[in-house]
Write a structure and sequence with these properties.
Layout lengths: L14 E10 L2 E11 L4 E5 L6 H9 L6 E6 L2 E2 L8 H5 L2 E4 L11 H5 L1 H6 L4 H14 L16 H13 L5 E5 L7 H18 L2 E5 L3 H7 L2 E6 L2 E7 L9 H8 L20
Parallel strand pairs: 3-8, 3-9, 6-7, 7-8
Antiparallel strand pairs: 1-2, 1-4, 4-5, 9-10
Length: 272
């Protein structure tokens, strides 16, 4: 198994995860995971349901604390979720959650610029102007700014979530299935936009995706997870020479291979 962006040393890494483990009771959701990315690099995380992908991302953003291991962001150890520096670290991160996590009581524009309004970094007038600008970027009409999330389709809510994730020009952009529920044309538009953000702004992007074509063609690096473990990581250019059974099965979407379907009840989807 190779490491994503392994040509870069930890001293130059913008994101460095070392032997990260996260448990929920007796279940090990993330098991001894390593990850290294330099500033401006992009990574797609793939894997079956309950692989630990979303849990890993929530550890990166600070929602879950690490049971073991460390997480470094721009060489700061951000593993402690209660550290007084947490607001400073959080300001560098934008995140799209799997279920969008929009506030039902707020309008679309208030959702998009929620952080800026709460912190007072933008006036409400400036925040609305910023939100309308971002709505156009994700393919929504400016009239949707005054709507509430309940007025929107699932795909439109997804786009609002993406607009909120990029509203602060984050240094690290975390995306949990950014194109889930979107049609192929819009999916391609969103992924092109993500690539443009990474290229033009030097944003480091980590994205969970179920679209294997997008994973292969839009991201520089790829990580394959199953049962909380990393089974392969490396450059997407090296995928065809990987000869890894888990990776091959996932990319091909085959029912035959080392990945088997879970049976029984899952706990509220947190191990996705």
């Amino acid at each position: 198994m190779t490491q994503a962006a392994s040509s870069h040393s930890d001293s130059t890494a913008f994101v460095a995860v070392k032997k990260l483990t996260k448990r929920f009771g007796s279940v090990v959701a993330v098991n001894n995971v390593d990850l290294t990315l330099s500033r401006g690099e992009t990574l797609a995380i793939i894997g079956p349901s309950a692989a630990g992908k979303s849990v890993l991302m929530k550890c990166l953003v600070g929602i879950y604390g690490a049971d073991e291991g460390t997480i470094y962001l721009d060489q700061d150890d951000v593993s402690d979720t209660n550290a007084p520096e947490r607001p400073k670290w959080a300001a560098k991160i934008g995140m799209l959650f799997q279920q969008n996590a929009l506030f039902d009581s707020l309008t679309v524009w208030e959702n998009i610029c929620f952080r800026q309004i709460e912190l007072g970094t933008l006036s409400r007038k400036a925040a609305k102007e910023r939100a309308v600008e971002l709505l156009g970027l994700v393919g929504l009409a400016q009239e949707s700014a005054e709507l509430t999330p309940s007025d929107l389709s699932g795909g439109m809510q997804k786009r609002v979530g993406i607009a909120r994730a990029i509203s602060t020009d984050p240094e690290l952009l975390l995306l949990d299935n950014p194109t889930a529920g979107l049609d192929p044309v819009l999916s391609n538009h969103i992924e092109l936009m993500i690539s443009k953000i990474a290229t033009q702004r030097g944003t480091t992007v980590i994205s969970i995706t179920n679209d294997m074509q997008i994973a292969r063609t839009r991201y520089q690096n790829l990580m394959m997870m199953h049962d909380g473990k990393v089974y392969w990581s490396g450059k997407t250019d090296d995928i065809d020479d990987a000869h890894n059974a888990h990776l091959t099965q996932m990319l091909d979407g085959s029912s035959q291979g080392p990945i088997t379907m879970r049976t029984g009840k899952r706990e509220d989807g947190i191990f996705a």
